[in-house]
TrEMBL record:
A molecular-function term among this protein's GO annotations: signal peptidase activity
All copies of domain Peptidase S26, residue ranges: 6-61
Keyword list, A-Z: Hydrolase
PANTHER family noted in UniProt: SIGNAL PEPTIDASE I, THYLAKOIDAL PROCESSING PEPTIDASE 2, CHLOROPLASTIC-RELATED
GO biological process: signal peptide processing; thylakoid membrane organization
Pfam families: Peptidase_S26 (PF10502)
GO cellular component, one term: chloroplast thylakoid membrane
Top-level lineage group: Eukaryota
Record-linked InterPro entries: LexA/Signal_pep-like_sf (IPR036286), Pept_S26A_signal_pept_1 (IPR000223), Pept_S26A_signal_pept_1_CS (IPR019758), Peptidase_S26 (IPR019533)
TM ranges: none
Protein name: Putative signal peptidase I
EC number: 3.4.21.89
Protein's organism: Rosa chinensis (China rose)
Length: 61
């Protein structure tokens, strides 16, 4: 679970939290986009759907 002060990033078709690759065996296809590291501020949440390439979620907003 992501928390305040965590960094989230998508790089080389992988999701990274605080620089560690996350094992997401439920995702059917690799990420087709890159996302620079984002710091989650206190009092905020970061939402990503499991259909990662077709969701309109926090990586878009």
């Amino acid at each position: 679970m992501l928390q305040a002060a965590d960094y989230v990033q998508v790089h080389d078709e992988k999701l990274l939290v605080n620089g560690e690759i996350q094992n997401e065996n439920y995702i059917l296809e690799p990420f087709t986009y890159e996302m620079e590291p984002i710091l989650i501020p206190e009092g905020y949440i970061f939402v990503m759907g499991d259909n990662c390439n077709n969701n309109f979620d926090s990586h878009d907003w």
